[in-house]
Amino acid sequence: MVRSRFLRDLLALAVLAAAYFGAGKLGLKLAFVNASATAVWPCTGIALAAFLIRGYRAWPAILAGAFLVNLTTAGSAATSLGIAVGNTLEGVVGCYLVSRFAGSHRAFERAQDVLKFAFLAGMVSTTVSATVGVTTLALAGFADWTRYSSIWSTWWVGDAVGALVVTPFVLLWWENPRLHWTRARMMELTFLFAGLFLTVGIVFGGRFHDAVKNYPFEYLCIPFLIWAAFRFGRRKAAAAICTMAAISTWGTAHGFGPFARESQNTSLLLLQAFIGVMAVTSMALAAEFSEHKRADEYVRQLAVTDPLTGLANYRRLLDALDSEIKRYERTGRPFAVVLLDLDKLKMINDTHGHLVGTAAICRLANILRIHCRAMDTAARYGGDEFVLVLPETESHAALSVADRIAERLSTDGDEPPITVSTGTAVYPEDGKTIDELLAAADQVLYGKKGYSRKKLPQPT
User: Fold this and answer.
1) Assigned architecture for domain 314-449
2) Residue 151 has pLDDT above 70, yes or no
Protein backbone atom coordinates (compact mmCIF):
# COMPACT_ATOMS: atom_id res chain seq x y z
CA MET A 1 0.00 0.00 0.00
CA VAL A 2 2.84 2.38 0.90
CA ARG A 3 4.66 1.55 -2.32
CA SER A 4 1.49 2.09 -4.38
CA ARG A 5 0.89 5.47 -2.74
CA PHE A 6 4.49 6.47 -3.34
CA LEU A 7 4.21 5.56 -7.01
CA ARG A 8 0.97 7.54 -7.36
CA ASP A 9 2.56 10.58 -5.75
CA LEU A 10 5.62 10.24 -7.96
CA LEU A 11 3.46 9.99 -11.07
CA ALA A 12 1.44 13.04 -10.00
CA LEU A 13 4.63 15.05 -9.50
CA ALA A 14 5.91 13.94 -12.90
CA VAL A 15 2.68 15.00 -14.61
CA LEU A 16 2.77 18.33 -12.78
CA ALA A 17 6.39 18.94 -13.84
CA ALA A 18 5.53 18.06 -17.44
CA ALA A 19 2.53 20.41 -17.43
CA TYR A 20 4.69 23.21 -16.02
CA PHE A 21 7.38 22.55 -18.62
CA GLY A 22 4.92 22.52 -21.53
CA ALA A 23 3.17 25.71 -20.41
CA GLY A 24 6.53 27.37 -19.81
CA LYS A 25 7.82 26.59 -23.30
CA LEU A 26 4.67 28.08 -24.80
CA GLY A 27 4.98 31.19 -22.66
CA LEU A 28 8.64 31.76 -23.49
CA LYS A 29 7.81 31.80 -27.20
CA LEU A 30 6.45 35.27 -26.45
CA ALA A 31 9.59 36.51 -24.65
CA PHE A 32 10.70 39.73 -26.37
CA VAL A 33 12.57 41.83 -23.78
CA ASN A 34 14.67 38.86 -22.63
CA ALA A 35 14.76 35.19 -23.51
CA SER A 36 13.72 34.29 -19.96
CA ALA A 37 11.12 37.02 -19.36
CA THR A 38 7.68 36.89 -20.94
CA ALA A 39 4.43 38.78 -20.44
CA VAL A 40 2.52 35.49 -20.75
CA TRP A 41 3.37 32.99 -18.03
CA PRO A 42 0.57 30.53 -17.12
CA CYS A 43 3.04 28.47 -15.07
CA THR A 44 2.49 30.71 -12.04
CA GLY A 45 -1.18 29.74 -12.01
CA ILE A 46 -0.31 26.05 -12.39
CA ALA A 47 2.22 26.20 -9.55
CA LEU A 48 -0.06 28.08 -7.16
CA ALA A 49 -2.98 25.74 -7.86
CA ALA A 50 -0.70 22.74 -7.28
CA PHE A 51 0.45 24.08 -3.92
CA LEU A 52 -3.12 24.85 -2.83
CA ILE A 53 -4.32 21.37 -3.89
CA ARG A 54 -1.39 19.16 -2.87
CA GLY A 55 0.28 21.32 -0.26
CA TYR A 56 3.93 22.28 -0.05
CA ARG A 57 5.03 18.77 -1.04
CA ALA A 58 4.46 19.80 -4.66
CA TRP A 59 7.69 21.82 -4.64
CA PRO A 60 9.94 19.17 -6.31
CA ALA A 61 7.73 19.14 -9.42
CA ILE A 62 7.65 22.94 -9.67
CA LEU A 63 11.39 23.21 -9.13
CA ALA A 64 12.13 20.51 -11.72
CA GLY A 65 9.72 21.91 -14.30
CA ALA A 66 11.02 25.47 -13.89
CA PHE A 67 14.65 24.34 -14.07
CA LEU A 68 14.13 22.31 -17.24
CA VAL A 69 12.11 24.98 -19.05
CA ASN A 70 14.80 27.59 -18.42
CA LEU A 71 17.73 25.27 -19.05
CA THR A 72 16.35 24.36 -22.48
CA THR A 73 15.66 27.99 -23.39
CA ALA A 74 18.55 30.26 -22.41
CA GLY A 75 21.15 30.85 -19.74
CA SER A 76 23.28 28.40 -17.81
CA ALA A 77 22.54 25.67 -15.31
CA ALA A 78 23.27 28.12 -12.49
CA THR A 79 20.89 30.80 -13.77
CA SER A 80 18.24 28.17 -14.54
CA LEU A 81 18.50 26.87 -10.98
CA GLY A 82 18.26 30.40 -9.56
CA ILE A 83 15.17 31.18 -11.64
CA ALA A 84 13.63 27.83 -10.68
CA VAL A 85 14.19 28.55 -6.99
CA GLY A 86 12.50 31.93 -7.42
CA ASN A 87 9.53 30.37 -9.23
CA THR A 88 9.15 27.74 -6.50
CA LEU A 89 9.40 30.29 -3.69
CA GLU A 90 6.79 32.38 -5.47
CA GLY A 91 4.35 29.46 -5.32
CA VAL A 92 5.19 28.73 -1.67
CA VAL A 93 4.72 32.36 -0.63
CA GLY A 94 1.51 32.65 -2.65
CA CYS A 95 0.12 29.46 -1.10
CA TYR A 96 0.94 30.65 2.41
CA LEU A 97 -0.60 34.10 1.91
CA VAL A 98 -3.76 32.77 0.25
CA SER A 99 -4.16 30.02 2.87
CA ARG A 100 -3.58 32.44 5.72
CA PHE A 101 -5.61 35.43 4.59
CA ALA A 102 -7.86 34.53 1.63
CA GLY A 103 -9.52 31.22 2.46
CA SER A 104 -7.03 28.84 0.80
CA HIS A 105 -8.65 26.77 -1.99
CA ARG A 106 -12.02 28.34 -1.08
CA ALA A 107 -10.75 31.78 -2.05
CA PHE A 108 -13.29 32.11 -4.86
CA GLU A 109 -16.43 31.57 -2.78
CA ARG A 110 -16.69 35.19 -1.59
CA ALA A 111 -16.01 38.41 -3.45
CA GLN A 112 -13.81 39.80 -0.67
CA ASP A 113 -11.64 36.69 -0.77
CA VAL A 114 -11.32 37.03 -4.56
CA LEU A 115 -9.98 40.54 -4.09
CA LYS A 116 -7.59 39.31 -1.37
CA PHE A 117 -6.42 36.56 -3.70
CA ALA A 118 -5.84 39.08 -6.49
CA PHE A 119 -3.72 41.25 -4.22
CA LEU A 120 -1.78 38.55 -2.37
CA ALA A 121 -1.28 35.99 -5.15
CA GLY A 122 -1.43 38.31 -8.15
CA MET A 123 0.53 41.29 -6.88
CA VAL A 124 2.57 40.38 -3.78
CA SER A 125 3.88 36.84 -4.18
CA THR A 126 4.75 37.37 -7.85
CA THR A 127 7.37 39.95 -6.89
CA VAL A 128 9.45 37.07 -5.49
CA SER A 129 9.96 35.31 -8.81
CA ALA A 130 10.45 38.54 -10.75
CA THR A 131 13.04 39.87 -8.32
CA VAL A 132 14.98 36.62 -7.93
CA GLY A 133 14.84 35.80 -11.63
CA VAL A 134 15.87 39.17 -13.05
CA THR A 135 18.57 39.63 -10.41
CA THR A 136 19.97 36.19 -11.23
CA LEU A 137 20.08 37.00 -14.96
CA ALA A 138 21.69 40.39 -14.35
CA LEU A 139 24.37 39.01 -12.02
CA ALA A 140 25.21 36.27 -14.53
CA GLY A 141 25.43 38.77 -17.39
CA PHE A 142 22.37 37.50 -19.28
CA ALA A 143 20.44 40.73 -18.68
CA ASP A 144 21.51 44.37 -18.84
CA TRP A 145 21.22 46.23 -15.55
CA THR A 146 19.94 49.28 -17.42
CA ARG A 147 16.94 47.26 -18.57
CA TYR A 148 16.30 45.76 -15.15
CA SER A 149 13.02 47.61 -14.58
CA SER A 150 11.52 46.79 -17.99
CA ILE A 151 12.44 43.10 -17.69
CA TRP A 152 11.18 43.00 -14.11
CA SER A 153 7.82 44.60 -14.96
CA THR A 154 7.30 42.21 -17.89
CA TRP A 155 8.16 39.23 -15.71
CA TRP A 156 5.88 40.43 -12.90
CA VAL A 157 2.88 41.14 -15.15
CA GLY A 158 3.17 37.72 -16.80
CA ASP A 159 3.29 35.94 -13.45
CA ALA A 160 0.47 38.05 -11.96
CA VAL A 161 -1.98 37.46 -14.79
CA GLY A 162 -1.02 33.78 -14.91
CA ALA A 163 -2.08 33.47 -11.28
CA LEU A 164 -5.31 35.42 -11.79
CA VAL A 165 -6.42 33.47 -14.87
CA VAL A 166 -5.11 29.91 -14.48
CA THR A 167 -5.35 29.29 -10.73
CA PRO A 168 -9.15 29.81 -10.47
CA PHE A 169 -9.73 27.64 -13.52
CA VAL A 170 -7.63 24.74 -12.21
CA LEU A 171 -8.85 24.93 -8.62
CA LEU A 172 -12.56 25.19 -9.38
CA TRP A 173 -12.63 22.42 -11.98
CA TRP A 174 -10.38 20.18 -9.88
CA GLU A 175 -12.73 20.45 -6.90
CA ASN A 176 -15.89 19.84 -8.91
CA PRO A 177 -15.34 18.37 -12.38
CA ARG A 178 -18.91 17.07 -12.71
CA LEU A 179 -21.41 18.71 -14.99
CA HIS A 180 -25.13 18.70 -14.15
CA TRP A 181 -26.79 20.31 -17.15
CA THR A 182 -30.31 20.24 -18.39
CA ARG A 183 -30.92 20.60 -22.11
CA ALA A 184 -31.90 24.25 -21.66
CA ARG A 185 -28.72 24.99 -19.71
CA MET A 186 -26.61 23.19 -22.30
CA MET A 187 -28.14 25.27 -25.08
CA GLU A 188 -27.61 28.49 -23.17
CA LEU A 189 -24.00 27.59 -22.43
CA THR A 190 -23.45 26.76 -26.10
CA PHE A 191 -24.80 30.16 -27.13
CA LEU A 192 -22.62 31.83 -24.51
CA PHE A 193 -19.34 30.32 -25.64
CA ALA A 194 -20.25 30.55 -29.33
CA GLY A 195 -20.90 34.26 -28.86
CA LEU A 196 -17.69 34.66 -26.87
CA PHE A 197 -15.65 32.84 -29.53
CA LEU A 198 -17.18 34.93 -32.29
CA THR A 199 -16.77 38.25 -30.49
CA VAL A 200 -13.20 37.65 -29.36
CA GLY A 201 -12.37 36.31 -32.82
CA ILE A 202 -13.67 39.47 -34.45
CA VAL A 203 -11.98 41.85 -31.98
CA PHE A 204 -8.63 40.07 -31.83
CA GLY A 205 -8.64 38.15 -35.11
CA GLY A 206 -7.17 39.03 -38.45
CA ARG A 207 -10.25 38.73 -40.66
CA PHE A 208 -11.65 42.13 -39.69
CA HIS A 209 -8.35 43.69 -38.66
CA ASP A 210 -8.46 46.48 -41.24
CA ALA A 211 -12.00 47.45 -40.24
CA VAL A 212 -11.63 47.40 -36.44
CA LYS A 213 -7.94 48.21 -36.03
CA ASN A 214 -7.21 50.68 -33.22
CA TYR A 215 -10.87 50.74 -32.17
CA PRO A 216 -11.44 49.91 -28.48
CA PHE A 217 -13.82 47.04 -29.13
CA GLU A 218 -12.38 44.90 -26.34
CA TYR A 219 -15.29 45.97 -24.13
CA LEU A 220 -17.58 43.84 -26.32
CA CYS A 221 -16.22 40.80 -24.47
CA ILE A 222 -17.42 42.06 -21.09
CA PRO A 223 -21.15 41.11 -21.45
CA PHE A 224 -20.22 37.49 -22.11
CA LEU A 225 -18.06 37.36 -18.97
CA ILE A 226 -20.89 38.85 -16.91
CA TRP A 227 -23.31 36.39 -18.51
CA ALA A 228 -21.08 33.47 -17.52
CA ALA A 229 -20.63 34.78 -13.97
CA PHE A 230 -24.31 35.53 -13.39
CA ARG A 231 -25.92 32.51 -15.00
CA PHE A 232 -23.34 29.74 -14.61
CA GLY A 233 -21.21 30.60 -11.60
CA ARG A 234 -17.51 30.51 -10.88
CA ARG A 235 -16.35 27.51 -12.90
CA LYS A 236 -17.84 28.66 -16.19
CA ALA A 237 -16.71 32.22 -15.52
CA ALA A 238 -13.14 30.95 -15.07
CA ALA A 239 -13.47 28.93 -18.28
CA ALA A 240 -14.76 31.98 -20.16
CA ILE A 241 -11.82 34.05 -18.93
CA CYS A 242 -9.32 31.40 -20.05
CA THR A 243 -11.03 31.19 -23.44
CA MET A 244 -10.86 34.94 -23.94
CA ALA A 245 -7.25 35.05 -22.72
CA ALA A 246 -6.11 32.31 -25.10
CA ILE A 247 -7.75 33.77 -28.22
CA SER A 248 -6.82 37.38 -27.47
CA THR A 249 -3.20 36.45 -26.71
CA TRP A 250 -2.88 34.63 -30.03
CA GLY A 251 -4.37 37.58 -31.92
CA THR A 252 -2.30 40.21 -30.15
CA ALA A 253 0.89 38.22 -30.64
CA HIS A 254 0.14 38.24 -34.38
CA GLY A 255 -0.41 41.99 -34.42
CA PHE A 256 -4.22 42.01 -34.36
CA GLY A 257 -6.66 43.64 -32.00
CA PRO A 258 -6.98 46.95 -30.15
CA PHE A 259 -3.82 46.42 -28.12
CA ALA A 260 -1.50 45.87 -31.08
CA ARG A 261 1.45 48.28 -31.04
CA GLU A 262 4.78 48.45 -32.80
CA SER A 263 6.42 46.77 -29.83
CA GLN A 264 5.13 43.23 -29.38
CA ASN A 265 6.03 43.24 -25.71
CA THR A 266 4.10 46.46 -25.13
CA SER A 267 1.12 44.95 -26.95
CA LEU A 268 1.15 41.92 -24.69
CA LEU A 269 1.56 44.02 -21.54
CA LEU A 270 -1.49 46.11 -22.46
CA LEU A 271 -3.47 42.97 -23.20
CA GLN A 272 -2.41 41.30 -19.96
CA ALA A 273 -3.51 44.33 -17.96
CA PHE A 274 -6.95 44.07 -19.60
CA ILE A 275 -7.16 40.31 -19.00
CA GLY A 276 -6.13 40.69 -15.36
CA VAL A 277 -8.77 43.32 -14.66
CA MET A 278 -11.44 41.26 -16.41
CA ALA A 279 -10.42 38.12 -14.52
CA VAL A 280 -10.67 39.78 -11.12
CA THR A 281 -13.94 41.50 -11.99
CA SER A 282 -15.56 38.35 -13.41
CA MET A 283 -14.52 36.12 -10.53
CA ALA A 284 -15.66 38.68 -7.96
CA LEU A 285 -19.04 38.97 -9.69
CA ALA A 286 -19.36 35.19 -9.94
CA ALA A 287 -18.53 34.80 -6.25
CA GLU A 288 -21.02 37.52 -5.33
CA PHE A 289 -23.78 35.96 -7.43
CA SER A 290 -23.05 32.51 -5.97
CA GLU A 291 -23.11 33.92 -2.45
CA HIS A 292 -26.48 35.54 -3.08
CA LYS A 293 -27.83 32.24 -4.41
CA ARG A 294 -26.61 30.43 -1.30
CA ALA A 295 -28.20 33.08 0.91
CA ASP A 296 -31.50 32.83 -0.99
CA GLU A 297 -31.45 29.05 -0.69
CA TYR A 298 -30.75 29.33 3.03
CA VAL A 299 -33.69 31.70 3.49
CA ARG A 300 -35.94 29.36 1.51
CA GLN A 301 -34.86 26.47 3.71
CA LEU A 302 -35.57 28.49 6.83
CA ALA A 303 -39.07 29.20 5.53
CA VAL A 304 -39.92 25.48 5.36
CA THR A 305 -37.72 24.08 8.14
CA ASP A 306 -38.33 23.75 11.86
CA PRO A 307 -35.44 25.64 13.54
CA LEU A 308 -35.13 23.23 16.48
CA THR A 309 -35.19 19.84 14.79
CA GLY A 310 -34.26 20.66 11.20
CA LEU A 311 -37.33 18.74 9.99
CA ALA A 312 -40.02 20.21 7.79
CA ASN A 313 -42.24 22.79 9.46
CA TYR A 314 -46.02 23.18 9.31
CA ARG A 315 -45.93 25.02 5.96
CA ARG A 316 -43.83 22.32 4.34
CA LEU A 317 -46.09 19.65 5.85
CA LEU A 318 -49.19 21.19 4.26
CA ASP A 319 -47.37 21.41 0.91
CA ALA A 320 -46.39 17.73 1.15
CA LEU A 321 -49.92 16.65 2.01
CA ASP A 322 -51.37 18.76 -0.78
CA SER A 323 -48.89 17.26 -3.26
CA GLU A 324 -49.79 13.73 -2.20
CA ILE A 325 -53.50 14.42 -2.62
CA LYS A 326 -52.86 15.71 -6.13
CA ARG A 327 -50.68 12.67 -6.84
CA TYR A 328 -53.51 10.39 -5.76
CA GLU A 329 -55.86 12.16 -8.17
CA ARG A 330 -53.43 11.39 -11.01
CA THR A 331 -52.29 7.88 -10.09
CA GLY A 332 -54.90 6.52 -7.68
CA ARG A 333 -52.17 5.44 -5.25
CA PRO A 334 -52.98 6.08 -1.58
CA PHE A 335 -50.64 7.56 0.99
CA ALA A 336 -50.47 7.38 4.76
CA VAL A 337 -49.71 9.73 7.60
CA VAL A 338 -48.26 8.80 10.97
CA LEU A 339 -48.91 11.13 13.88
CA LEU A 340 -46.36 10.83 16.72
CA ASP A 341 -46.64 12.27 20.22
CA LEU A 342 -43.88 12.08 22.84
CA ASP A 343 -45.13 10.52 26.06
CA LYS A 344 -44.90 12.43 29.35
CA LEU A 345 -42.78 15.30 27.99
CA LYS A 346 -44.05 17.57 30.77
CA MET A 347 -42.82 15.11 33.38
CA ILE A 348 -39.41 15.03 31.71
CA ASN A 349 -39.28 18.83 31.75
CA ASP A 350 -40.32 18.99 35.42
CA THR A 351 -37.91 16.24 36.50
CA HIS A 352 -34.85 16.80 34.34
CA GLY A 353 -35.25 20.35 33.07
CA HIS A 354 -36.32 21.88 29.80
CA LEU A 355 -32.95 21.30 28.13
CA VAL A 356 -33.40 17.56 28.54
CA GLY A 357 -36.96 17.89 27.26
CA THR A 358 -35.72 19.74 24.21
CA ALA A 359 -33.09 17.04 23.67
CA ALA A 360 -35.87 14.43 23.84
CA ILE A 361 -37.72 16.21 21.02
CA CYS A 362 -34.52 16.22 18.97
CA ARG A 363 -33.96 12.52 19.66
CA LEU A 364 -37.29 11.69 18.08
CA ALA A 365 -36.52 14.01 15.17
CA ASN A 366 -33.19 12.20 14.58
CA ILE A 367 -34.96 8.83 14.56
CA LEU A 368 -37.37 10.11 11.95
CA ARG A 369 -34.58 11.60 9.86
CA ILE A 370 -32.44 8.47 9.91
CA HIS A 371 -35.07 5.76 9.45
CA CYS A 372 -37.36 7.34 6.87
CA ARG A 373 -37.18 6.99 3.11
CA ALA A 374 -35.92 9.85 0.97
CA MET A 375 -39.44 10.23 -0.48
CA ASP A 376 -41.05 10.55 2.95
CA THR A 377 -41.67 13.88 4.67
CA ALA A 378 -41.03 14.14 8.41
CA ALA A 379 -42.38 17.34 9.97
CA ARG A 380 -42.72 18.83 13.40
CA TYR A 381 -46.39 19.66 13.73
CA GLY A 382 -46.19 21.54 17.01
CA GLY A 383 -44.72 21.16 20.50
CA ASP A 384 -44.01 17.46 20.99
CA GLU A 385 -46.07 16.23 18.04
CA PHE A 386 -44.68 15.12 14.70
CA VAL A 387 -46.23 13.99 11.43
CA LEU A 388 -44.70 11.56 8.96
CA VAL A 389 -46.08 11.54 5.40
CA LEU A 390 -45.58 8.20 3.63
CA PRO A 391 -46.25 8.29 -0.14
CA GLU A 392 -47.66 5.17 -1.81
CA THR A 393 -48.15 3.42 1.53
CA GLU A 394 -51.04 1.22 2.68
CA SER A 395 -52.41 0.90 6.23
CA HIS A 396 -50.40 -2.17 7.26
CA ALA A 397 -47.15 -0.66 6.02
CA ALA A 398 -47.85 2.57 7.88
CA LEU A 399 -48.46 0.60 11.09
CA SER A 400 -45.17 -1.22 10.58
CA VAL A 401 -43.31 2.07 10.14
CA ALA A 402 -44.93 3.56 13.26
CA ASP A 403 -44.04 0.50 15.35
CA ARG A 404 -40.46 0.49 14.08
CA ILE A 405 -39.93 4.16 14.94
CA ALA A 406 -41.44 3.67 18.42
CA GLU A 407 -39.14 0.69 19.04
CA ARG A 408 -36.02 2.51 17.81
CA LEU A 409 -36.74 5.49 20.06
CA SER A 410 -37.34 3.37 23.17
CA THR A 411 -34.05 1.51 22.64
CA ASP A 412 -31.82 4.42 21.52
CA GLY A 413 -29.73 4.10 24.70
CA ASP A 414 -29.92 7.73 25.76
CA GLU A 415 -31.14 8.99 29.11
CA PRO A 416 -33.81 9.45 30.22
CA PRO A 417 -35.66 6.69 28.34
CA ILE A 418 -38.52 8.09 26.26
CA THR A 419 -41.42 6.56 24.37
CA VAL A 420 -43.75 7.79 21.69
CA SER A 421 -47.39 7.10 20.88
CA THR A 422 -48.45 6.83 17.27
CA GLY A 423 -51.58 7.00 15.21
CA THR A 424 -51.95 6.27 11.50
CA ALA A 425 -54.42 7.20 8.81
CA VAL A 426 -54.60 6.46 5.09
CA TYR A 427 -55.88 8.70 2.33
CA PRO A 428 -58.67 8.54 1.17
CA GLU A 429 -60.01 5.75 3.40
CA ASP A 430 -59.72 7.70 6.66
CA GLY A 431 -60.20 11.21 5.33
CA LYS A 432 -60.51 13.11 2.08
CA THR A 433 -59.09 16.41 3.29
CA ILE A 434 -55.96 17.30 5.19
CA ASP A 435 -57.90 18.16 8.34
CA GLU A 436 -59.91 14.94 8.22
CA LEU A 437 -56.80 12.84 7.68
CA LEU A 438 -54.89 14.39 10.58
CA ALA A 439 -57.94 14.19 12.81
CA ALA A 440 -58.29 10.46 12.04
CA ALA A 441 -54.64 9.82 12.92
CA ASP A 442 -55.09 11.91 16.06
CA GLN A 443 -58.09 9.84 17.12
CA VAL A 444 -56.13 6.58 16.73
CA LEU A 445 -53.19 8.01 18.67
CA TYR A 446 -55.22 9.10 21.66
CA GLY A 447 -57.21 5.90 21.57
CA LYS A 448 -53.90 4.08 22.14
CA LYS A 449 -53.13 6.41 25.02
CA GLY A 450 -56.52 5.58 26.55
CA TYR A 451 -57.72 9.19 26.35
CA SER A 452 -60.66 10.70 24.56
CA ARG A 453 -59.97 12.39 21.28
CA LYS A 454 -58.67 15.93 21.64
CA LYS A 455 -58.24 18.75 19.23
CA LEU A 456 -54.84 18.83 17.53
CA PRO A 457 -52.58 21.60 18.88
CA GLN A 458 -51.94 24.65 16.80
CA PRO A 459 -48.58 24.47 15.05
CA THR A 460 -45.66 26.29 16.70
Assistant:
1) 2-Layer Sandwich (3.30)
2) yes
